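Researcher: Next sequence.
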Amino acid sequence: MAHVSTPRCPHCRHFLFLDKLICPECDGQLAYHPRLRQFVGIHKGKAVVGGETWYTCSNRGWRCNWLVRDDAPSGRCFSCRLTRATPDGDDTVALEKLAKTEEAKRRLVLQLGDLGLPIRPWYEGAGGLGFDFLSSISLGRSVTIGHKNGIITLDLAESLDDRREALRIKLGEPYRTMLGHLRHEVGHYYQRVLITDEQTWAECRALFGDERANYRDAIARHYREGAPEGWAQAYISEYATMHPWEDFAETFAHYLHITATLQTANATGMRLDGEAFAHRDSDVNPLPSYADQPVHRLVGDWRWMSHAFNRVNRSMGMGDLYPFEIVATVVRKLAFIHDIVTRSPQPAAEQQVVALAAATAAATTPDTGFA
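Model: Next structure:
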């Protein structure tokens, strides 16, 4: 399932981060090919790949570096077409924040594809995945971050570091990022997509609780009383204690955090020398994919790798990269998510059919992009 690649400049082979439009080493013009998981060189806004002509996304002016096939509506890439609502076109301040949030979403979409998770876009019917990116600063009112019927809503104001950090401290959260929000909210979406039979729902409820419990009452109780005493023995975070929906979404987000970071570690050639760690007889070699591995291999590799990452962060005077403890109960929850994610993946070829066929479907929908 994993499309592992080390992103390099096609001109000079310099390593590139996924958000680049121009190579910082040779100034070559670049675009990212989401099917190949590689950068390609572009000339006059287009590239020929495998005999097909691909064009730069029409949102390139807002730093989208993805390519689109020549029949894509409005010239927008698949990731950009998943965005349903955005700030007004003349709100340049909000659009700057939108560009940063879209970068995080592209990372999310790539990871969902790597895991073989199906994406049915919002414009193909009710319940499809879509994103409303709004700004509480521009609107002059609060924007509720959340998920409803496939639509994920985020407040672009949280892309401001000081605002997000203030909320993180106020809410007592050890970790809060835009990508983290996206991974959490998409967990709500996939709980309904991946659990389709009563037996699996029963297994889910045995681990996370009954999601049919009153959500409004749970919110009120959580903000009135906080997390229950001893919560860390059964939950990955305090927020996960609020309601079974939130426990599932938080655990799903951590599954995405863990698998993405281990995949990156593998792609960059990282490994841990077993002799450098006490109580460890063998090296730790992160895998490009854990789809055919038991969850204990995934969690075991992550425990050692995150320990090393935390030590590196502390040597720079920063907080832990991964400030969470994965206890036995959480491992069982991760195992459930690992199972439903890996037992019925959508092959890469089918994902491409969906993404490219969606281009034709989207041509009949209003252009709600930010181009």
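Model: The longest strand covers residues 52-56. The mean pLDDT is 87.
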